[in-house]
Amino acid sequence: MSTRFFMLVVTVAAIIWFTQLGYRDLIEPDEGRYAEIPREMVATGDWVTPRLNGFKYFEKPVLQYWATAMAYTLFGDNTTTARLWPALTGFLGALWAGFLGLRLYGRSAGFYAFLITLSGLLYFVDGHYLVLDMSLAVFLFAGIGCLVLAQRSRDDAANLRNWMLAGWTSLALATLSKGLIGVVLPAATVVIYSLWARDWILWRQLHIVKGLAVFLLVAAPWFIAVSLANPEFPQFFFIHEHLQRYTSTVHERQGACWYFLPVFLLGIFPWVAVTLKSLLRPGFTSRLPGVAGFDAERFLWSFALVVFVFFSAGQSKLPSYILPMMPAVAVLAGRKLATEGYQRVDAWLLAIIAVVLMLTGWQISSLASDSISADMYLAYRPWIFAGAGLYAVAALLANLVRRLRTVHIAVIGLLALLAVQVVLLGFQSLAASRSSQELARAIRTNVPEGTEIFALASYPQSLAFYMKQTLTLVIVTDEMKMGIQQEPERWIGSEEEFLARWAAADQAVAVFRDHDLEKYLPLLEPARIIYSGPRRAAVIKS
């Protein structure tokens, strides 16, 4: 494989990956929340205490908020800059997987690892959806990869130390991305691997003292600063958001013990066959040259297993939780492709999904509900058909060039990327049901900037971002319960208090669920309806 071909593929992949980051409206609740918090950082100038709708918000650490706030400062606060951090870290994470595969198993394995990581369904979606999991996954895997490369240099003390310190730095950034999971999973991996492989030398090569010093130097300052400014932070963050979140159903995200099995199988599409083969028939023969006792493949396999088992055992489950294992299994799958050639099953799987998408498109209007109309689904149908067509083309072309191994894999990877991008872009057809962009347009059209907006018994998570102002919460607490307890004066806790505030206002807007329109409109007279959509309704005092 030539360098020119590799650069061409990376360039095309980057164009597909970064194209139209801002095309889709922000989806509630997650994207609205994680776009608004850094906007408020910039607006208030407080980069220590995260706030959501003006209330202290301590569920997650601060790294992505900082990165997004800096993007807002440089390029403006818009949908594109809101999604830039997960997209950027995701692409860099795929390049890192490719680099690790290259260093461990050769150029072809690295190239395949890059494509498998980038075009895997779960990885692509999380790279284009505004949550914190991609940042965590990339920095976690960077730390794991640095450890592996360090063991390649056991006979070079300086190189080993440098790679290990880079790994500790990465784990600190992972911790600043989503909490203590940034050190728990790597620590568990080291324990499992060392017991399994009986590699006791590893423990002497971790540079624990220097590593912890670097880790604390990077991660500790913010935790100390936010704790000093907010004494309630440690208990909420470390006890509630870590211990209680993992051991209880406090966040109501429970699932069966096998929850992540279908998530994983769907998440590695279209590389299902080769990935399963690399995991189920690993061989564990890939000892690094000149390094007695260390097995890189066994270590990566251990990391993937730890991630899968850890989150499967927890009481709180979401599909993106297992994202950190995807680059690791991609490196293993890349090695398998490099040594055993193309997988016909993976190519034909594209044809199968093309048929499934076509059938889904024909029947999609039957999914209509009160929140998503049949017309919205019908508007989505052409995008689904387009994605199906791209998968079909990918299957055909991959079969035609199957003897050209590298081209074959590039065709599958790039067209799979494009197909998922098309289907994801089409989700904009359903945006009115999951975003407050249209609601914000209606409000801006009817009232001056800065007019007080009451969120009555419901909080539309993206509205504050689109309006560039916080809302006055009425009755609803949503995820701001802790913040409201700290600053109850910023909240209206009764309908009577709200009606008094409404009556005293010269002009104001009230936003609530669409099915509450008949309930609240008589109470707010004189009022005029300015928006009535699939999920929300809004009135202004007239």
Summary of the model, kept short:
The chain has three domains: 3-22 and 78-340, no CATH class; 344-433; 434-541.
Walk me through what this model shows.
The protein folds into three domains: 3-22 and 78-340, no CATH class; 344-433; 434-541. The chain is globular. The longest helix has 27 residues, at 79-105. It has helices at 3-18, 30-44, 63-75, 79-105, 107-119, 121-127, 133-151, 157-178, 181-197, 201-204, 208-229, 233-247, 260-267, 272-280, 296-313, 325-340, 344-363, 374-400, 405-425, 431-434, 437-446, 463-467, 481-486, 495-504, 517-520, and strands at residues 51-52, 55-56, 453-456, 472-474, 509-513, 527-532, 536-541. Helices cover 64% and strands 5% of the residues. The chain is mostly helical. It is built from 25 helices and seven strands. Strand 1 (51-52) and strand 2 form a beta hairpin. The strands form two sheets. It has a five-stranded mixed β-sheet.
List keywords for this structure.
single chain; 542 residues; mainly alpha; 3 domains; 5-stranded mixed β-sheet; two-stranded antiparallel ribbon
SSE topology:
Layout: H1 3-18, H2 30-44, E1 51-52, E2 55-56, H3 63-75, H4 79-105, H5 107-119, H6 121-127, H7 133-151, H8 157-178, H9 181-197, H10 201-204, H11 208-229, H12 233-247, H13 260-267, H14 272-280, H15 296-313, H16 325-340, H17 344-363, H18 374-400, H19 405-425, H20 431-434, H21 437-446, E3 453-456, H22 463-467, E4 472-474, H23 481-486, H24 495-504, E5 509-513, H25 517-520, E6 527-532, E7 536-541
Parallel strand pairs: 3-4, 3-5
Antiparallel strand pairs: 1-2, 5-7, 6-7
Helix pairs in contact: 1-19, 2-3, 3-4, 4-5, 4-6, 4-7, 4-16, 5-16, 5-19, 7-8, 7-9, 8-9, 8-11, 9-15, 14-16, 15-16, 17-18, 18-19
